[in-house]
Structures are given as structure tokens and as C-alpha cells.
């Protein structure tokens, strides 16, 4: 494993007075990576539960999170009874029981294994704008302590694709159109049979909602993510690569396996 701490007090963009301070950890395999993320998330869960008495967490639903979640739910004595859990995004237009729905994916990989936690799912049915308003109220009721996320092949975080990403979005949750690169990733991840089957719209936490989390744990395995990781870590802080904003968060760790690392 190699670790890089990056601290820069030079603005990443002359029009945005960003200070960059983030940590990158690189592991030989995605299994090693997932175990390391889970260990760090668990430590932070225990710390927050001890200090605050409750832990508010946001989870991404994607194959990139599988090893981390499997390790996390297998850990003994985590304070799940003190956890309020949210998920980051979900499709519009899929049946409530569709296995591709992110809420259902998280039910299988996480929620069903932590029955003592309070879980707020993005509803599968209802008027999309009303769902956004309701979920925003739940999300914004108290600060979010932990965000577990990934980076998409187009550099998205949650479903904030480059065409719609807004670093200054006034909303916490909104409806977005998905770009074709993002939709193709869902096919390449074996979630859908073909592009036509992937919904074109979704509900997502916005970038400010994600960045408001006290601690961000970003898990990114695989060679197909390498270009996005390189742009996020080495390019300008820009909505052309929404994940680049993570460099400005005061407590963000980005975990990579060797295949995803920009320089191998």
C-alpha cells in the first residue's frame, strides 16, 4: 500500500478560492482496498457514536462498494443501533422491486444486515419532485457524519454527471438527466442488458449535499476508472470532472486499487 497526503494552499482555479487537502491510499488489490476502507469507516463510526450518540451516514450503491460493505457488515460490535442511513441516488421509472434499483441493491448488500439501524430509502414510487423535497427534509434535519461514495467513469459523484453537475447547487436532492457515458457504465457493470434498458432520469443527492458530510470515504477500484481518477486528482477543479471537487473537502480519503491508480 502507498499513501499520498496532498496539501495545497494555492487556488485550484483562479475563479474559485479552493484549498486542497485530501488523502489518497493505493492498495494492490480491490479486496485489500475494500478492507482498508471498511476499517477506517468503522473507526469513524465508533468515534462519532461515542462523541455524539448517533451516526448519520450516506451510502453509494455500486459494485465498487461491494468489498467495503461486505467487510463492514461482518465487523463485530459496530454501533448500527445508533446509525441513521441514507442512500445517495436512485433511478426514476424502474419498478419498485427491480433489482437494479439502488435501494434494492443496498437492501441486499447492507440494509438487510443492519436491522437495528434507522434507514431512509429514496421512495420508488411517487412524484419525483415531491420525493426530492421529502428526502431533502430528512437529509438536512441534522449534519451528515459519514459519506461512503465512489467515482464514475465520467467523473460523476452520485448521479451528478458532467452535464448537470453544479458545485453551488442550492438543493440537497434533485432530479437529473443521466448522460450516455453514465448509462453505459451501468451496462458495463452488468446491471442492465443494454443501453436502452437504463433509465434516463434519476434522483440524486447534489454535490453540496455530499460535500457537507463531515468525513468522506471514496472507494474507486478498476482500470476503467483510471482516467476519471487521473482527471479528478490531477486536472482542474471543474464540473467537467465533478469528482475533482473532492480535493477541496477538509476530510476526504480516496482509496484506489492498483488498477485505478493513475500511474499504476
From TrEMBL:
Pfam families in the cross-refs: Glucosamine_iso
Molecular function (Gene Ontology), one example: glucosamine-6-phosphate deaminase activity
Cited CDD domains: GlcN6P_deaminase
Coiled-coil regions, chain positions: none
InterPro entries, alphabetized: Glc/Gal-6P_isomerase, Glucosamine6P_isomerase, NagB/RpiA_transferase-like
Biological processes per GO annotation: carbohydrate metabolic process; glucosamine catabolic process; N-acetylglucosamine catabolic process; N-acetylneuraminate catabolic process
Protein name as it appears in the record: Glucosamine-6-phosphate deaminase
